[in-house]
From TrEMBL:
Quaternary organization: Component of complex II composed of four subunits: the flavoprotein (FP) SDHA, iron-sulfur protein (IP) SDHB, and a cytochrome b560 composed of SDHC and SDHD.
Metal-binding among keywords: yes
Pathway terms, separated by semicolons: Carbohydrate metabolism; tricarboxylic acid cycle
A single GO cellular-component term on record: mitochondrial inner membrane
Pfam families the UniProt entry points to: CybS (PF05328)
Classification of source organism: Eukaryota, Metazoa, Chordata, Craniata, Vertebrata
Organism of origin: Seriola lalandi dorsalis
Function, in words: Membrane-anchoring subunit of succinate dehydrogenase (SDH) that is involved in complex II of the mitochondrial electron transport chain and is responsible for transferring electrons from succinate to ubiquinone (coenzyme Q). SDH also oxidizes malate to the non-canonical enol form of oxaloacetate, enol-oxaloacetate. Enol-oxaloacetate, which is a potent inhibitor of the succinate dehydrogenase activity, is further isomerized into keto-oxaloacetate.
Protein name: Succinate dehydrogenase [ubiquinone] cytochrome b small subunit
Length: 158
């Protein structure tokens, strides 16, 4: 009978379970060849190492992660503030925060799904263009129209 154990209950501060060693993360795969009577062995490896470009002592990734979480919490607080106390300061703060939040989110999607040097450069250029146009459009809306706060109030009033 098989037992399922949570990995977090086995991994206590610095203790790795036996089955998570890198030598045990490869599994053999037997593939028969057309012209041979005996099948030959292929090996599929699962890489459990960190990303190549991130150093193990890098603070930049940790600070970026913290900044993303702080911005998300600020956006949660800015919604009710924009409704109850509309002002140009809140309008432009929302324009900057929404643009930055979208830029970071789409950037993570591009990091996960776009591969190849030329494709990454094109995707990042498109992302910067999209973020710039978004911020400029929101600032234009704030300056020449009712602003984000009043627009939210108008949407919620109907």
């Amino acid at each position: 009978m098989a037992a399922i154990v949570r990995l977090s209950s086995v991994c206590r501060r610095g203790v790795k379970p036996l089955w998570y060693q890198s030598t045990l993360l490869s599994r053999p795969l037997v593939v028969p060849h057309k012209n041979q009577e005996q099948p030959y062995l292929l090996t599929a490896r699962i890489h459990a190492s960190q990303a190549l470009y991130a150093g193990s002592g890098s603070k930049a990734a940790s600070l970026h992660w913290t900044a993303e979480r702080v911005l998300s919490i600020l956006l949660l607080a800015m919604g009710p503030v924009a409704y109850f106390h509309p002002s140009p300061v809140i309008d432009y703060s929302l324009a900057a925060a929404l643009t930055l939040h979208g830029h970071w989110g789409i950037g993570q999607v591009l990091t996960d799904y776009v591969h190849g040097d030329a494709k990454v450069k094109m995707a990042n250029a498109g992302l910067f263009l999209l973020s710039t146009v978004t911020f400029a459009g929101l600032c234009y809306f704030n300056y020449n129209d009712v602003g984000i706060c009043k627009a939210i109030a108008l949407l919620w009033s109907k």
